[in-house]
Amino acid sequence: MSRETFEMIKSEAAKLSMWAHIATVGADSCPDVVPVHPSWDGDDMWIMVGTDSVKVRNCMANPNVALHWQVTASGDGIEMWGTASVHTDIDTKVRLWTGVFDYDLAAFAPDGPHASPGTAFMKVVVNRALYLPMYGMKGRHEWKRS
User: Fold this and answer.
1) Considering its fold, how many domains does the chain have in total?
2) Range of the domain at 63
3) Residue 128's domain is classified under what CATH number?
4) pLDDT 10s digits, 56-107
5) Which residues pair with 84 in a beta bridge?
6) Is the pTM for the entire model greater than 0.90?
C-alpha cells in the first residue's frame, strides 16, 4: 500500500484527537484498554509511559497492540495495529524529551530525562492502519507495511 496513504491516515488521526486508546494483552491473556497521547517521530509512534504501568507489563508479555482514535460526530474513525517495545535508556529519553511530543513531559516527570527512572517510552511500529470516514460509507483507506 502507498506511503501517501499512511501519511494521510496519520494526518487524519491528528485531526480526530490528540488522544487514542491502546489495547494490550497481558501474560494472563486479559485485555486492557487505556487512553494515551501518542506522538510521531517519522513513522514511529511514541507514547510516554510509567515503567510500572499495566500497558508496559502487558507489552513485555505480548508486544502486539491496537490503537483506536475516538470516532467523531460525523463517524470518522481510525484504527492502527502494531508491535510495541519499551525503552528506558537515557539516550532515547533525551532524544524524545524535546521536539517529539506536543506537550510538556515535565508535567509528568518533573526531574527530566536523566532523573526519572519510573519514566519510559513505548515505541509502536505500525504494521496496519485503517481510516473509515463516516463509518466507512465515504470510503475505506487501509495501509499495510510491506
Assistant:
1) 1
2) 3-144
3) 2.30.110.10
4) 999 999 999 999 997 888 888 999 999 999 999 999 999 999 889 999 999 9
5) 124
6) yes
